[in-house]
């Protein structure tokens, strides 16, 4: 059965809206024959979010009891994902009803590696603020997003916190970039340079604005431009190497060739006892 894996990196001190996020996941309805799993990886020492996620059989929760940051936390979640498609969902954002089914359908009829729906800001008073898309809606050819960003000072017209991606495509890039900021943007620069995507007109998710957002953290103030610079560098490197994803061999997701199995770790030191 094909699966959509929602991946969420959670951090308890900033996860005050996680119950609302969970409710939005629970409300998703997929096309017949599809399965949903929500892979939640909790970052930080002293994990405490497990009970918040109880009661849902689609949740696959794990904590690593260390402070590793969002990029490594997302990649640990990715290592546990079984789906052919991966949906990004931050622990404070909201998926609207029908979001996954709509975006999933774009993959069934198009040779694409990513899709993203329009997003409204969810403001602190509960109201929403909409934004016009800088890109045309529909199919987006490989490289088009990065060319736009290069022409606009290293600012991207796609909100990476709402991406639905082919899991194999994401893994082929090594997962999320190992950066302290904009790990999703640096990854998306390579992904969108290597393969086409879909810019969906319909609003499929809400981007919550609140005081505890990681992007508002003063600790990262000196790194604001690092991620954008790395994203531009990565896009140009992929383009200069003349790389492209091969045409998708499994547009219907009938089979899954990504399952791996581990044997005994032969690099462990011998038992001295």
From TrEMBL:
Gene3D superfamilies: Spore Coat Polysaccharide Biosynthesis Protein SpsA, Chain A
SUPFAM superfamilies to which the protein is assigned, alphabetical: Nucleotide-diphospho-sugar transferases
Domain Glycosyltransferase 2-like: 5-133
A matching Pfam family: Glycos_transf_2
Protein's UniProt name: Glycosyltransferase involved in cell wall biosynthesis
């Amino acid at each position: 059965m094909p699966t959509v894996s929602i991946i969420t990196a959670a951090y308890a001190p900033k996860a005050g809206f996680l119950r609302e996020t969970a409710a939005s996941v629970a409300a998703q309805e997929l096309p017949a024959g599809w399965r949903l799993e929500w892979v939640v990886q909790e970052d930080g020492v002293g994990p405490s979010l497990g009970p918040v996620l109880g009661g849902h059989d689609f949740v696959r929760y794990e904590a690593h009891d260390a402070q590793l940051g969002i990029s490594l936390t997302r990649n640990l979640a990715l290592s546990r994902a079984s789906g052919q498609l991966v949906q990004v969902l931050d622990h404070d954002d909201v998926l609207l009803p029908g979001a996954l089914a709509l975006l999933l359908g774009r993959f069934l009829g198009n040779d694409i590696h990513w899709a993203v729906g329009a997003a409204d800001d969810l403001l602190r008073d509960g109201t929403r603020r909409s934004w016009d898309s800088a890109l045309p809606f529909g199919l987006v050819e490989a490289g088009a997003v990065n060319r736009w960003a290069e022409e606009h000072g290293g600012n991207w017209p796609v909100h990476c916190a709402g991406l639905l991606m082919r899991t194999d495509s994401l893994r082929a890039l090594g997962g999320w970039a190992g950066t302290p900021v904009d790990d999703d943007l640096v990854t998306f620069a390579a992904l969108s340079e290597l393969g086409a995507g879909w810019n969906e007109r319909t609003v499929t998710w809400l981007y919550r604005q609140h005081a505890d957002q990681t992007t508002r953290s003063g600790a990262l103030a000196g790194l604001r431009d690092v991620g954008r610079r790395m994203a531009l560098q990565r896009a140009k490197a992929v383009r200069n190497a003349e790389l492209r994803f091969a045409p998708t061999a499994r547009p219907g997701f009938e089979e899954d060739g990504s399952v791996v199995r581990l044997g005994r770790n032969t690099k462990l030191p011998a038992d001295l006892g």
